[in-house]
Amino acid sequence: MRSGYFKETIAEQIALTDSWAVRAWVIALVLALIVAPFYLNPFYLSLLTTIAITVVGALGLNVLTGWTGLISLGHVGFMLLGAYAYAIPVALHGYDPLVGLLLAGLVPALASLLVGVPSLRLTGLYLAITTLAFSFIINHLILSFDGFTRGARGIFVNRPTILGVSFQSDAAFALLCLGFAAATLLATLNLRRSRIGRAFVAIRDNDTAARVMGVNLHAYKLFAFVTSSFIIGISGALYGIFLSFVSVDGFPFVLSIQALAILIVGGLGTALGAVLGSVFIVLLPEVVNLGFGVLGGEAARAISTGAHELKSMLYGLVIILFLRFQPHGLVGLWRDLKRGWVNWPLRY
Amino acid sequence: MTFLTELIVSGLAIGAIYGLIAMSFAVIYKATGLVNFAQGEVAMIVAYVAWTISVHVDGNPFVVAAAAIVFAGLFGLAIERLVIRPMMGEPVFTTIMVTIGLAVVLRSSIVFLWDAYPHALDLGVGQEILEVGGVRLRSGQVAVFLILIAVIVGFFIFFRRSRFGVAMRAVASDDRTALLMGVSTARVQSVAWAVATIISGIAGVMFAIIYELSPVMFTLGLKAFPATILGGLDSVLGTAFGGLVIGTAENLVGGYFDPRMKEVAGFIIIILILMVRPFGLFGTRRIERV
What we know:
The complex is a heterodimer. Chain A is built from 16 helices and four strands. Chain A is mainly α. In chain A, the strands form two sheets. In chain A, strands 1-4 form a two-stranded antiparallel sheet. Chain A has a two-stranded antiparallel sheet with strand order 2-3. In chain A, 44% of the residues are buried. Chain B is mainly alpha-helical. Chain B is 73% helix and 3% strand. A two-stranded antiparallel sheet of chain B has the order 1-2. In chain B, a hairpin with a 2-residue loop joins strand 1 and strand 2 (135-138). Chain B starts with a helix and ends in a 14-residue tail after the last helix. The chains are: A mainly alpha, B mainly alpha.
């Protein structure tokens, strides 16, 4: 009888996977995702693109909130900065989209130092409050400097042509976003395995102990801020391109909440959780729509008049219910299932 | 000079509203150790319920006030029992997120249950123009200031004199010891929620009377935040002062610098305060070094 897996070296411990079955599944999934954009209808394609962009943003927040344990309500602020850092040079001044994408990461990363440095002394609640304040200040700065940002009028953004490859069509743009999502996933997974990632988790679990072990709290917290806002900024730029219009209204505060909801639903502190959570949260309103459609009549009418409200109400409910009944999120559910499958009929 | 006094006086009036909500933040924080990010939404719900009642009973202000206060109390108890109590003892992240989830649910239920348009909450009072020393004010603005003072005095006496107030202070300073001494912390916490909901409900109703009733009223909670931090999260009376300061500061910034900066003035203050004195002006200094 199998009595569990034992790992004997650090290399085995931090390997992404040691199972051929998992590798095969991942390859199959990647192939399916590469082919899918060419076969999906426009509606499902837009959902796929949204999921890919959301995955990028959620993974970014996961670095800060999931691994380092710093709560941030400023997600939408960094997304806005990224979107504008892309839109202003590219759409208004005709720079190359590559420059724009780079700036979309760098500008929020620099701005995060502005929030990060004063926030170093703060934890938990207080950090949530400063980041919340930050996102509101960004919002108002963008509206105030309308000579530079076009204020409330917003900026139209075209799909980019990068290195001679046009991402004009929906399918090509979906592939671009999927590429970014995959790259971010690999990058953050590898960051987690490195010395830096382990320091992040040490800070999250017990900052005093981490400090005693020689982790420089200030440096690592700042690094978490910078990395996470770099990634979130890029997701903001992608979202702006996806909407083809960058404005303050396109990035409502609910995106910050949505990002946290994704982490909670997926399972806080795991990259897989960020991905599963993104899929779940993006598809949730559609599934509910379907459900109400089946009920028909009165229910369908209610959902079409109050669709937007119902959608955000769902985010709130999902957050509360998951925290209450499944704090480890979908990843926890998956782990329990796996354990149950392997050990059945025993209970451990 | 009149411009300045006018800015200050109307700033004090809106500041009194922030102060009331900030006090409700502090009451909940003191009793349960959590910050309720849904406080603005709670104020908004109570104001909407008051409006619905006033439409149906044809506006006797006393009936409306009594009914709204009863509703607010029950609403606070219900939130505490159904949403908050099961989560007590969980990490900070969890409790914050639960109140954020609650905020989102309440905020969207406003538009879902009522509608998205602004309304006037007309009780036939609060609109008269008073002239005090050359400054023209609506009586509602004076009233909200007086209510703030009444609530402050009430709290002061309550915390010092009443048995229950002492129990609340005991729970706030050390809930385990209080429990061992025979104080029912659960009861103290539910009462704190009820009281906080009533206070912020009063603030919401006063705001609706003086200005207007609309689904963006939840921003009152966000505005009261800087006030709470300024006064000190665990100082109920300090936060009332914080509210007045933030209200006045906002108005002065809006009047003398840039009207658009008015909205974010409070948030800039909050960041500055958190850098210098994270525990606020009157809060207890917690020793927490990173």
